Amino acid sequence: MFTFSFNHVAISVKDVDRSAAFYMKVLKLQEIENTASKSKTRWFSLGEGKQLHLIPRPNAEIKTNKAVHFALAIDDITTFITHLNSLNIEYTDWLGTPSKDYIRNDGIRQFYFQDPDGYWIEVNEDF
């Protein structure tokens, strides 16, 4: 048996500066040093040693669907929804109903929104 721990998620982005600004403004992520290379890839802390890496790929075709997403848990989901609304960022439930969150069968509240490249981000209160 192997023992793993989650380290990072990396996504290709068309404009790394635009995406970095989005993640700093919307998720309030702190940029950290890219210790792997001198490339234009930008790294952000997700807390507890977990990271988000934004890899610039200006010519890449980026295809997304809601089933391929990353999820972040927060302890005050209502305040975060207010924050999204203040930034005019649309969010939906799984079915795509605008401005709607929902409660999963296990009682966890969640919703989805997209970044500038169309990647889906789930926010839930499974904290």
Kindly describe this structure:
By secondary structure, this protein is an alpha/beta fold. The chain has two domains: 8-56, 2-Layer Sandwich (Signal recognition particle alu RNA binding heterodimer, srp9/1), CATH 3.30.720.120; 69-124, 2,3-Dihydroxybiphenyl 1,2-Dioxygenase, domain 1 (Roll), CATH 3.10.180. Helix content is 17%, strand content 31%. It has two helices and eight strands, in the order βαββββαβββ. The strands form two sheets. It has a four-stranded mixed β-sheet, with helices on one face. The longest helix has 11 residues, at 16-26.
Short précis:
It holds the Pfam family Glyoxalase. With 127 residues, the protein is α/β, with parallel strands linked by helices. The protein has two helices and eight strands, in the order βαββββαβββ.
